[in-house]
Amino acid sequence: MSSLLCSWATTSSPLLAIPSSSSSSSSYSSSLVLYPKPKARKAARPFCSARRNDEENQNSNQENKLDRRNMLIGLGGLYSAANLGSNTLESSAAPIPAPDLSTCRPNLGPPVPYSCCPPDTPIVDFTLPTNPPMRTRPAAHLASADYINRYNRAVQLMRNLPATDPRNFLQQSYVHCAYCNGAYFYPALQGLNRGEIQVHGNWLFFPFHRWYLYFHERILGSLIGDPTFALPYWNWDSPYAMDAPAMYSNNRTYPALYNDRRNQLIYRRPVNLGTGTDSNQTQAQIANSNCAVMNNEMIRTATTLESFMGTPYRRGNAVPNGPGTSERGSHNAVHRWCGDPRLPAEEDMGNFYSAGRDPIFYGHHSNVDRMWTLWRQRRAANQRDFTDTDYLNSQFLFYDENSRLVRVRVGDCLDNTRLGYQFQTEGVFVTWTDCRPFTRVRGSRAARISDFPKLETLEFPLKLDKVVKVRVPRPRKSRTPKEKEEEVELLLIEDIEVDVGEFAQFNIFVDEEEDSFDDLTKAEFLGTFSHVRHKHDTPMKIKAQERLELNTLLDDLDVEGDEEILISLVPLAGISPLVVSRSALLLPPHKNACSDDQVLAYELYDAYYQKVHENNYY
Ligand code: C2O
């Protein structure tokens, strides 16, 4: 372990990154590439093949100590190794405490004033159940009529509770609202200031939503006297479940699960996990695109904890906004897709203040929660979670089925089975594990890349109102597989300025020569940045950051030997422009170890994919 820590101080020359101005204008050609049959593809390679059980935990712990200011310093010049050694600023005694409900504040501005402050009652500490009966969350598309009836009845009972009962459906939605719209503050403690609580865009994202659903589920179960009741999950990651599950669409049969404030297309068109909007793509094209997007955010660019989970967030620090791959990808896309475009603030799902008012939120987040579980399952046991106590000891408050205000910690929710629930696996297809893009054959790229501006020539701030292309020098090239296992090359984009009240998104491509940016199945697609509307009534700009892993993509494109890469920042059509400032760094060393089990599992998935394909499920 300590050797890992040492290597922090030996590597890193940073590089600058994102560029500006020259740009070829975007050509939105509609060419989409379908995945070939598996036989035609290069055999799937495990995305990592180390046999050691390295402990990424320890260095992610270290990584957490990386002061954001150091990154900014790195923008203009070298990323000094000395900075990496200083852990002093972020001492590990700063978990985010539970909110002080007495300081909860409403949001009164136009156009929609709202208050989502739940009742303030005495707090009890949560204790993990001992041997809880296992509840199995069903895939929503496969749920039986009997199950849906029970679920509908439970939600109806929840809606019928007195408006002031914290278990009431609207009160439940306030809990989510309060944690993400500036309503909650944690108290000043031990000399550290009070601060705003935000559960999106940082490492609290998965734990908060897991706890939120846990209590929601328990309340529903108690209302129908069924302690085995479990929420459904809408597995939008599957090609067979891309349209909204029927249980949410029937106002007459299942009125409690219905909500009029939704995009009316969601029942008959597949969700596009790359954009959250509709297009003229066919069902098969969207299925292929989604499969690649899922692979990218779950596997290809998510080999380290921080890439997947989001950025650290500690008491006393400004609220960070660095969502992980899953949150800014499929999670945000489904929110946007389900929100009602007829409403100015895209309620309910399209805006975090109202999202919890839509029953489909819970089916969506049950699947987001499942993504966390699936991601953890692919990793060695000692690499599944941050071990940082600031993470493990962060707290939230929720109401339980007895209307008690319960204080929970992040560290108690990491393994869903310990909370007494699991996800249905029978009959549920996970296809994206093998949707890694084509490996490209190296072409005559070198000549053309020089046509584009270099990073140093860009002027910041950079307005993303069109495609921006820039050449970015790499910190090192021709790294060996072993070196690549040990270090992840990252593109870091800092200071992305977003208006909290507006949806925003851009995609990032590497070495894309054809300017065809609507095909996300190609190896050149690196990832996305997106932002879902928050406090829609307060015009406010916030800064976001994003980190994108390059290791595998560079292999896919066969450009590991290149000195520079061409980055394209591609704003999505119809969205107001973002402003971005820079940078890319090589951050050492994020261990990418896989256990033998994982490698094996990958091969199994490959066989599985064959089977799925032969049966023409696509
Ligand atoms: Cu808290 Cu999907 O949002």
Report what the structure shows.
The protein has 618 residues and is α+β, with helices and mostly antiparallel strands. It is 28% helix and 14% strand. The strands form five sheets. Strands 1, 9, 11, 14, 16 and 17 form a six-stranded antiparallel beta sheet that branches. It has a four-stranded antiparallel beta sheet with strand order 10-15-12-13. Strand 6 and strand 7 form a beta hairpin. Helix 5 packs across helix 7, helix 7 crosses helix 11 and helix 10 packs antiparallel against helix 11. The longest helix is centred in the middle third of the chain and has 19 residues. The N terminus and C terminus are likely disordered. The site of CU-O-CU linkage has 9 residues, from helix 6 and helix 10. Its cofactor is Cu(2+). Keywords: Copper, Disulfide bond, Metal-binding, Oxidoreductase, Thioether bond. InterPro entries: Di-copper_centre_dom_sf, Polyphenol_oxidase, Polyphenol_oxidase_C, Polyphenol_oxidase_cen, Tyrosinase/Hemocyanin, Tyrosinase_Cu-bd.
Short synopsis of the structure:
The chain has 618 residues and is an alpha+beta fold. Helices cover 28% and strands 14% of the residues.
Topology of helices and strands:
Elements: H1 2-8, E1 14-15, H2 56-64, H3 68-76, H4 81-85, E2 123-125, E3 135-137, H5 145-160, H6 169-180, E4 185-186, E5 195-196, H7 205-223, H8 283-300, H9 305-309, H10 325-338, H11 360-377, H12 389-392, E6 395-399, E7 405-409, E8 421-423, H13 445-449, E9 462-464, E10 468-473, H14 481-486, E11 488-499, E12 504-510, E13 525-531, E14 541-549, H15 551-556, E15 564-571, E16 578-580, E17 584-587, H16 596-614
Parallel strand pairs: 2-7, 3-8
Antiparallel strand pairs: 1-17, 4-5, 6-7, 9-16, 10-15, 11-14, 11-16, 11-17, 12-13, 12-15
Helix pairs in contact: 5-7, 7-11, 8-10, 10-11
The structure holds CU-O-CU linkage.
